[in-house]
Amino acid sequence: MKKSLLKKVAVGVLAGVIGLSFVGCGKSRVENTKDASSKQVVSTTLDKIKESKKLVIGTSADYPPYEFHKEIDGKDTIIGFDVNIAQEISKDLGVELEINDMKFDGLIAALKTGKVDMVLAGMNPTEERKQSVDFSKIYYTAQHAVIVRAEDKDKYKTLADLKGKEIGAQKGAIQEELAKTQIEGANVKGLGKVTDLVLELKNKKVDAIVVEVPVAKFYVEKNKDLAITDATFKIEEGEQGSAVAVKKGDEAFVNAINSTLDRLIKEGRIEEFVVKANEQVE
Ligand code: ARG
């Protein structure tokens, strides 16, 4: 009797100790993780870049003059004004530049998993994206345009004229949302690459596609059977223009990117890159 009581007491005390130590552990563990992760996020990307002497950017090279493929000296090369900006950032960091070309809708995931260090893809800093990544300052602003087949240009003058039509937009791009919310009854088809959207339009699989104005100008210039309409979209003030995306909390890296952007903006280099990229587009 006495013995079993003692046992019970002992077990009770032991349970209490274990319980307490769990509480203690849990608490300090939370604090540690918080501390460690915030420190990690602040320094790792820049450290990693400097250690590997390489800056890896993610882009979707289907967006001339921002980024596109071109054969230079017999070699397939990715060029464009985003690439020029990335080159300046890597130059300022004193490292090599590596470009990772993928579908636009895979870019944010690639950034979050560390497959790329930053995304330069004519990306608008939308509120939704800001929930999962951080952005640099805006380096370039452009409106959005609707491309149709040249023979339909007179038919589609405004967004209202496109009511209930098949509209193509890049998957994951804000144009998908713009088409859905600003073209009544639009049947929006999202594709991974803009080059495929252009084919869909030419092949009458969609009636119109939505891309940024400079991109629209390029595709229309290259495809005489296509034309830009006068239709325009309303866009949130803060979501206009392109910015560089980085991992959330990557403050030191954003600061480094912003200081390169400040320099380029001050020296008028971005405009120069845009003009050059437009000339390289054929
Ligand atoms: N500006 C649009 C967005 O942020 C589309 C960008 C598409 N970029 C590209 N490289 N394909 O959603």
Automatic annotation (TrEMBL):
Keyword tags: Signal
Q: Name one Pfam family in it.
A: SBP_bac_3
- Locate the Solute-binding protein family 3/N-terminal domain: which residues? 54-277
Q: Which PROSITE patterns match?
A: PROKAR_LIPOPROTEIN
| Keyword Protein transport included in the entry's annotation | no
SUPFAM superfamilies per the UniProt record, alphabetical:
Periplasmic binding protein-like II (SSF53850)
Q: What protein name applies here?
A: Polar amino acid transport system substrate-binding protein
Species this chain originates from:
Clostridium punense
